[in-house]
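Hey L., structure's done. Input below.
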Amino acid sequence: MKHLLLCLMVFCSTIQAQVISKTDSNRIKPQDTLVIDSGHRDSLKIFKPTIYDYQYQTQFSEKKIFDTVFTHDKTFIFTQYNNRDNFGNIQFANIGSGFNQMVYKVDTEQNLSLLPARKSHFILGIADIKYYDVKTPTTAFIYHNSVSSGAALQSTYTQNIGKNFNFAVEYMGLRSLGLYLHNLASNNNIIFSGHFKSKNSKYEAFAHYIHSNVNNEENGGISDVSLFLGGNSNFNTRLNLPVNLQFSDSRFAYRRYYFSHEFRPFSSEKFPFKIRHTIFHQGNKYYYNQSQLEPYYFSVPADLVDYPLSSKKYSENLSNTVSVLFDQKNFKLDAGVRHQLIKLGVGMPFAAPFTDFPLELSENRIGAVGNLLIKLWDKVQLNSNLEFSNGNHFGNYLRSQNLMKFEPIKDYFVNAKVNFQTASPSFNLLINPSVYRKFNFFLNQPKNETITEIGGDVNLKWFQSSVFANYFRIDNYTYIDANLQPQQSGSSLNISQIGGEATFTYGKFHLNPRVLFQSALTNKDLYPMPNFVGRFNLFYQTKAFKQVAEIQTGIKIYYFTKFASREFSPVLNEFILPGSDPYSIGGQPIGDVYFNLKVKRMFFFIEAQHLNTTFMQNKSFTAPNYPLYDFRLNLGIVWYLFS
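Output:
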């Protein structure tokens, strides 16, 4: 209630103080800074910035303006603690605690690094870091309320110093207590970034530093599901439900120093060559901490080994790349060589009988990189990326990404992709130390996990619709079995996906459905998944308060079919195959009612999540033993300040 009153007070003051800007749209014709007074009177020109003076980019992408248009997808992004559309995932009961991924996808951040699956939803890779170009100092705030107590706030400040240098500072802090015992989430990250371009455009540099922490208390889920499903009013207070773990937490730290610069030795357009050098160091650390032994994990002393209560794993990657770039507007080609020093290790030597497991694996890798971009007639674009490296411990690494975009008919777009990757399995599945005997493993000389991905999508003008299809073939699929040991499949796992999205409009009413059908064509038991995932958003959108504000209000329903889900292992922070008696989740709708409001460049998101649990019992689960969140009032605020 306090959060709601705060939002209403800010909204009322904002309506009185702000007027809508005619340039506040990505759909209007781009224009530069407006000249308000040309200086005829006193030789001093007066400028008024427009939204097109506030831009950002990732290092290898084109610049984009700040998106301040009130589109329907905002309600899926800014109601999530990680500010992403998490379609295909199901959230744990507490924000900041990650998701159960129900739809297969390739996460390249796990390549040659240590990254537990449930910690990955908060992480920003190199390609996710934004570099800004703004005419005036710019600040952005994104706020989310938490579960029980706490909050999540992301703030960004960026400023240009002259025309050629920009710096930015971004911080995100999250703390949420949760409704269940021992369920605290505490996440944060800080980013410093900078972009410089010389006056003659011969030299350009990108740099950033990021440090992220994803920390969670681990309760192992509720110990007796029947108490949750029984309907006893004593357990409506979720703190009364006993949980499996009492003394455990997991911590993941992710740190990267990154610097990339390029120099153009010739000024003539006849010789559009550049020399690029990129160096970065990335360190990942994962800790599983305990203040006492957890009876949930052992029955007799023989189930333990002589190892500290808390364990540590880490990976490091020092990468150095030099490449030559041929850079024209419609044709770009660069190729270079890369050296990497990669390490994977544990904090303390393994205890008997696992003393033959290594303390650290380290190797120097030599490889090559290449990128190709071709644009033809403003209708066809081909983008290909290739990376290869070789090492002793982690074998050959090869990743090829190929994307073609073309417009066969005006306003109809086709994207086709063929991706191939062969790489060591995720480092988190290669090694693990623990005081509990069953959690100790070392996967020696694993085969490369090889993934072929073929797919694409067609975007149609009719109803703003799109249709997509994907096919995956995974050879040597690596997983954690029910005995908590890593295994590799002897035959391929084949997955097909097909789906689509559209927006139907009648006056000010809109219906936006998104559906996905998927199936494991072979080895279905290795990757349990729902056959159908769907989301339906029926909403009303209109201008209000004498055109000063804009309102969205509607109903969202999220649904996935029942399936025997993988289980979550807190020690590994990975999802493992269920045992002989799997527990099925899904088959229950998740209904939300929301009211969203935009005033100038401030957005309010008010959402009654899982509203159907106010008149029916909550029987939904995120994973076996982990109930889905109950009804809660979810608040979000997004505010862009262009000084």
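The mean pLDDT is 92. The radius of gyration is 26 Å.

-- N.
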